[in-house]
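re: that chain from earlier
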Amino acid sequence: MRILVVDDDAQILRAMRINLRARGYEVDTAFDGTTALRAAAQNQPDVVLLDLGLPDMEGGEVIEGLRGWTSVPIIVLSARHSASEKVRSLDAGADDYVTKPFGMDELLARIRAAQRRSVHVEEAPVVATATFVVDLGAKRVTREGREIRLTPTEWHILEVLVRNAGRLVSQRQLLHEVWGPAYQSETNYLRVYMAQLRRKLESDPARPVHLITEAGMGYRFDPHT
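^ sequence. v structure.
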C-alpha cells in the first residue's frame, strides 16, 4: 500500500516516512501542493495524508485538484482545530480530518478505515473508442493493436480527460492538474499538446471526434462518437 504524505515541515515528513515504512507502507512525500499533485498523478497512492498550510497553495486547493480525477482517500492532518476548517475540508472532498498533535496508533486506524471504505477497482480501467484504446491501469494507449508512445505530459492530459469522460474539463483545471497553479493562464500549452495528441490518436486530427475543444471553456473526451 502506497501513502503520499504532504507537509511543509521537513521533520514531520521524516518522522512520518520512518513510522509508516516501519509498518510496511510505501511512502512518497511532498513539501508543497504542486509537488503533491504531480506525485499523486505519477505514483497513484492508495491514501493521501495532507496538511492544509502549504507554501504555494491551500490544502483545500490540493483536495479539489485531486478530486478532479481520482477518488483516492484523503486524510487531512492539521493543527487547525476550528469546526469551519473541518467542514470546509470535508466539503471539498476530504474523507477524514485529524488534528495535530495525534498518536500514530490513531492515524494508522484512520488509514485502515479509509482503505476499507475506498473502492479498489478502477471505475474504467480500459476505455475503448472506435480509433484507440486507453488502459488507465497500465498507462498505455494502443491504436489498431499498436502501442502509441506518449510523453508524460501528453499522458497526464489524456488521463485527466478520460477519467472525466463526457464532462467538460476547464482549461484552468487541466493546467492546474498537469503543470500546477502557476500555469493556470498558459492556455497556449494546452493548444500545443492537444494538437499533438490529436495527431497521434484521431483518425482526422483536423476534425477530432474524441478529443473535443469547447471554445473558450476547455476540453472534453467523448469515447462514443
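The chain has a mean pLDDT of 89.
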